Structure formats: C-alpha cells, structure tokens
Amino acid sequence: MSKTSCDGCGRTVTVSGGIANLWSFGTDAGTVGTGITLELEDGSSHLLCYPCLEAIPDYPTTEDVERLERVDDETSRIGTL
C-alpha cells in the first residue's frame, strides 16, 4: 500500500492496490485502505480519508473539499470561510 495525504484535512491516507498488494492473491482483494478517491460532478477528483467522506454533503463541490478540517483522529468537519 502506498501512503499519501488526504486532500481535505491532510491526514496520512493508505491507498490499497498497486505493487504492494501484488502477492496478496486476493486475500484482501484490494479493500484495505484508509481513504478513497472521490470524483465530483465538475470532473475533479480528490483523495479523501473516511472521516472527511462522512463530513461532506451528499453532492459535494470542490469548495466543500477545500473547507474540510481535521477535528481529531476520527472526525472531520466543514469549516467556515
């Protein structure tokens, strides 16, 4: 698994798949990770941790992603402008 940062809050995010899972032979089927790439209707994509995914509205915009803040290790929120 590779590690990178959440586009919303900056947490370290592990991404499943790639060369690190080459020899797992489907035991986790690429499902182990702490974030997911979200593609928005405007065509942009953002790698977000699960707490940020829970904090954004159902039809998020790029502005919603830019306003995400880390509260603690388990929660995020949309900050004010």
Automatic annotation (TrEMBL):
InterPro entries: DUF7561. It comes from the Archaea. This is Small CPxCG-related zinc finger protein. It comes from Natrinema soli.
